[in-house]
From TrEMBL, chain A:
GO MF terms held by the record: ATP binding; ATP hydrolysis activity
Keyword terms, alphabetized: ATP-binding, Nucleotide-binding, Transport
A cellular-component GO term for this protein: plasma membrane
Residue intervals of the ABC transporter domain: 34-280
Lineage of producing organism: Bacteria, Bacillati, Actinomycetota, Actinomycetes, Streptosporangiales
Name under which the protein is recorded: Amino acid/amide ABC transporter ATP-binding protein 1 (HAAT family)
From TrEMBL, chain B:
Record-given protein name: Amino acid/amide ABC transporter membrane protein 2 (HAAT family)
InterPro entries, alphabetized: ABC_transp_permease (IPR001851), LivM-like (IPR043428)
Compartments it resides in: Cell membrane
Domain of life: Bacteria
UniProt source species: Nonomuraea fuscirosea
GO cellular component: plasma membrane
Amino acid sequence: MPDDTMTTSRKASALAAFKDMPREPGVPKPDPILVVDKVVRRFGGLTAVDVDHVEIQRGSITALIGPNGAGKTTFFNQLTGFDTADAGAWTFNGRAMNGVPAHKVARNGMVRTFQLTKALSRLTVLENMRLGAQKQKGESFWRAMIPAFWRGQEDEITERAEELLVRFKLDAKREDFAGSLSGGQRKLLEMARALMVEPELVMLDEPMAGVNPALTQSLLGHVKDLREQGMTVLFVEHDMDMVRDISDWVIVMAQGTVIAEGPPSTIMSDERVIDAYLGAHHDAPLSDTELESQLHEAEAALEAEIEEETQK
Amino acid sequence: MDWLTIITTTVHAAIGWESVVYGLAAIGVNIHFGYTGLLNFGQAAFMAVAGYGLAVAVTVMNLPFWMGIVIGLAAAAILALLLGIPTLQLRADYLAIVTIAAAEIVRLVFRSVYFKDIFGGSDGRRGFTGDFYAMNPFPPGHYGIGPFGFDERVIWFLAVGWSVVLLSCLVVYLLMKSPWGRVLKAIREDEDAVRALGKNVFSYKMQSLMLGGIIGCLAGFFYGLYNGAVQPDIFGTEMTFFAYTIVILGGAARVFGPVVGAMIFWVLFVFVGNTLAELVRNGFIPFMTTTQVGPIRYALVGLGFILLLVIRPQGIFGDKREIAINAR
């Protein structure tokens, strides 16, 4: 665990970067790791994603929120190469990433997890972890047959995997099949496995979905930990308590577009966000004259009804 | 009742040419299906192109035996590429559809009248095994113990055959405990997760398809070498599904699963068939004729496999914990 001064400094520097930043969608950040421009994804007649411009600040925890069907996961899929955008461009660390296949996106240091956890069930927890390591010599066909080529590297990978498992409190499960873990443990394993890739940007798709409350705190701690270790985190989440607790900046999507950005403390009181979640003018007060005329209408209707009844 | 014949033929089946041929075909299927999760229903095609590659090279093109082997191996590798490039990017079931269709296309091309001059039509090709048996170091005689044993021709075939089977098992063992095999097994579980971890899934699936296809094609060589001929209808879909049965019987994703599965498969097949034939011949089963034994033994062997899988759903070598996870 990093000491407190470190924690505060990382968080403080992230917050300082966002201080006094305008709340407009697509606002430029001082040091963006990911810059997205005009990404469009259509499914037939439906435009699922139409993001004009978004920047993700390096070294921060950014939340991506929005009502159901806002296109958050689809947006994730475009950025990570799991789906092909119809138009648009984005750069990661200044390198163009549109059209790059998913595995190369990951190799470049942009690693994602999935909303529905993808534990590799019939592999042990430790094998799941080892798989995440990059540039493995033993993963080439010819060298794989001669253990001498990869044994040393495998030991290093195992050591790193075990350190991570201890951190994520999964070390007791190392020899169990990943399929035997609980839902929350699978989320932990997936996050730990993503860290084996040694990413710069970690993209978490609903990390809290289906996790029991006892594990939530530990998962939150791990996400915060990622920032302390110098990684950037972008995550999709529905749980507003979690968003308020750990994020430095919030991007709000609705109907495929980014409608607002802002700090977590005030974003939920932003009118555009409330409109997106609850519908426009849902709680706009009626004016006095409107109220009066409505009352008169109701009265007249009642009187007419009474008259009708008595005349029978 | 001629028990001696029943027992000797059964023992011979366990270590005989059938176990070599079907064992190799099943080792290939095990790499595809057991380790990588690829549904290749065209294993017979890999055997066919190899068997015909050797036969045509030797008989039609008058090339030496070793050139025939090289051509057969190359044909299998090319077939894997042709099948894999369009389908491995798609969902798993597409590979199943394409491979089963491709296997039938290959068989029908080999038996077509149009290519009769090259492939010999439905008669196939024969007369290409001379060089192989000329290399036989065993002097003529009987090799074995008592009633069990083979002549010098068969013992040479089996020596080479089982060496190749064991070598294939060694390759599978080395590969599957390496990081390369780990990627394959991970693809079987969830290929999107593997992609998200920076592995080129398409490339690994292609390597798996090639390796399994090439090991499977060795079965085609050995079929031709033992029988002295290749015929198109031998390489039907039945061949592929026997290989699948063997893999599941032995336990998928186990190194020796396909080999032991093939032995059990043929022991059951020969034992049930011969016992039944003897019983009918000696009048113990009056309502059956000897010609009915063939179909009935398929039914009985099928019943045996069902029982075996009810008792051991994971196969002979399988791990019960894996089945439990699958059931979720």
